[in-house]
């Protein structure tokens, strides 16, 4: 209870504060409603207020419950008390009335038989007998007595007649005697009075009152006087009775000589009075007797009071033993209007604790508090989570900002480093050509190599930064996947030959000739993966395979017999299929199977690079694709590199909607696999263009069309690769596994075999057999004996030096095999080419270039006449038709559409208008023309049927540096060739723009 | 084979390799030679003589520009750049290197340095001119004797695994 009131007090204060605060907050809410943070805080505070209100209300309500229930209980108790009290009062009253009536009846009896008869029919004995026998009629009286009216004049006669004197009562009243000692004989005779009222008859129980003058007693006298005046029953105030010394009340009736009318005056009544009959009510015992008749006496305490005198009520019965404050008063009417009586009832016990109310309200309070607590905890939790979320958001923003800053920093720093590096490289290049001794030259070469490595590294970092900042965009141009792989292969061929590692590329026939995508980036990925492989592989092989994802999936279940025997070099390899096991493309098997575009529009390629190198330690495998992560610090020392390549590759692959994965077993090898999605180059271009392109890239090989060859190789995978490359030249290829089979097939087969390609391993295995084979070959009866070729993987292992020059001694083709290189070797050996020139470096590119540029009209812009001449000479070799001008302005006028130039080579540094400016102007002119054509202002026919004019412009500069290249791209140039011309580079650039140019044409 | 022709060819080869060794010519000259074929037999001579006339004109311009009181370094630089371009196209390496040094001085606006460089370039130019003229004469003799001119390329370039 105490705790509750404490709570209540606290709540009261809080509620006051709360009121003020809420008022304040409401104003604030309106102010900051649109403020996210503000409104959130306010709602938070609001929740808090709500909680306080809830607690307050709950406490109040529980208090109300308690009060209500306890008041109910009290009310009920009161009602019970009242009903009990009334019942008792009623009973007492009834009994009293019965007694009183009987006493009245006795008064009439006496009037009739005592005063009405002469001599009297009643004497003391009769009276005693009668009253004793009728005592049951007066349950509340303990005794009845009759006193006669005696005037003073009659006193002597009366005393003589009765035989005793009239005794006075007041002395008795003054010195109360014990009842046992009571003796009427010792009473003093009554003094002389006007009249007397001595008792003449009395019931046995009160026989001691005989002869006592009632008028001498104070109470009795009053009673007697009132009774005879009123003619009704009159009660005394309770007083101590004579002898018994108990509280009692005396009821007095007057007995009249004659029957008086009801409206008689008091004087008449007094005159007619003959005597008085009195009934003694012994209240205490009587009430007890009465209550015994009722049950539950013990629960209730009764007090009967005479309240005639309001300020001094006289207790007639009962004690004050009850503790309960609850009291009920019912009035009693004993027939005497002068006297007022009442009954006061109380419960004996104090009211019990209102346990029900306490538990109910307490229970409610507990539940409400718990609810409040849950609510509070929830709100707190929400607020905390929201706070955390805000913090997280802030941290995220910071992190993102930091990341962007990092990328920007990288980009800036890279760029800033590149600029001075250009100077360093340039100076080193110049230094190379000064008078240096061998050691110095070595130093310079090393410095230059390091510088170049640094520049390429910076370019990588720039790439990474670009990818991270999302600035990298992929091109969509048509390209030849096979040519790109050939290119990359040639890049690594030197290294692989040096190490004696077998390097091979196999591209499935189902991969389309032309794809549309970003060849540069694709090449970058391949180069990265192959570069890694070759770096870490000392023996065995590196095998690149390109398939359609569809194809691989179909064969996934079939190709189970792949074992260590059945691969390129016989070394154990990491299982390629494991590396793509996690790819989504394959996990959603069903969906991809129904991929309609895989055959139609989108080409999903899967490329694997498998090596037999050192592998990646298991603990390092998880961070392979993290930028700047290498297996260990020792790796970068022994093998170099930044560890950024794979991360870039991963990003690039993801940009191509592909996935990259790997499997690696230490000391066995690694296999990296990635998928990339390209568009089919055939699908949306007209057939003519494609045809032309095919012719261009393949026509160099057309002279082999229709020939047939035998590949001798016991390893089916390796044989497949050889077959693939030779087949690209249009040669029919058959695979046999040993030399004997060659002979048998040579003999049996109708179509002639033009060449036999023998795996070096087979040839070296058994030199006797080889010699025998050559010998037998000579004797085979055929018009043209087939040429022999050895497929060798490293320079050191070839024995070609020992072989005498003979048509039957095999020529050697160095691996890695590439169609162009194979073609060159075949041409050289077969000697059936029209072109007799001996093939020097890059002659394949030259051939291809010839096909690219033959008959094309090309504009060369250079202010330097000598340079102009040299460039013209260089391009003329490829069959191009050349126009030379010496300034940018002339170039602009020539290149204003319509014109028939296929391409333009432009020097950058020119006096007057430099190459960049000229290019920009040309592009602007082209743009406006294109717009006009689109709007239909100018007909396309007038502009050579070209909808979109964009003449490829290639920069010519001696500046080898990347930044210049970027600048070239920025101002609308398509490419970049360094002076002096290098056939490979020229070929690369020209073929690049020629694809994009083709795709732009109608 | 004719002994005289062989001797002539040997002399030609020796002379050519000496030019490379001394750094007067570089690989660019070889490439230039490669551009010459049946369809364009006098390509090298044409280009080189163009280089001579062009360069002489440029050198005169340069001398005149530097002799002026207010030297227009932009103009000078443009001339030197031209000269550098053509000399590198020809493969006249020492002229080209001298041009690079010249341009540095030019950027510093160092007139005495420029003067010195100009003299050096002139010397180098005259040297390469006389050497090349001699070379052409030798070649003409060889051709006249019925021999073929071997390209002087023993210079390694691409690693093309052709035996």
From TrEMBL, chain A:
Localization terms from the record: Endoplasmic reticulum membrane
GO biological process: cellular response to oxygen-containing compound; cellular response to stress; regulation of meristem development; regulation of seed germination; regulation of shoot system development; response to osmotic stress; response to water deprivation
Protein keywords: Kinase, Membrane, Phosphoprotein, Transferase, Transmembrane, Transmembrane helix
Record EC number: 2.7.13.3
Reactions mediated catalytically: ATP + protein L-histidine = ADP + protein N-phospho-L-histidine
4-aspartylphosphate PTM sites in chain numbering: 907
Pfam families, alphabetized: CHASE (PF03924), HATPase_c (PF02518), HisKA (PF00512), Receiver_CRE1 (PF24896), Response_reg (PF00072)
Domain of life the protein comes from: Eukaryota
Membrane-traversing stretches: 51-69, 353-376
Membrane topology qualifier: Multi-pass membrane protein
Primary location class: endoplasmic reticulum
Response regulatory domain mapped to chain residues: 708-830, 857-994
Domain CHASE: 118-344
GO MF: cytokinin receptor activity; phosphorelay sensor kinase activity; protein histidine kinase binding
One annotated Gene Ontology cellular component of this protein: endoplasmic reticulum membrane
CDD domains the UniProt entry points to: HATPase_EvgS-ArcB-TorS-like, HisKA, REC_hyHK_CKI1_RcsC-like
Residue span(s) of domain Histidine kinase: 412-680
UniProt-recorded name of the protein: histidine kinase
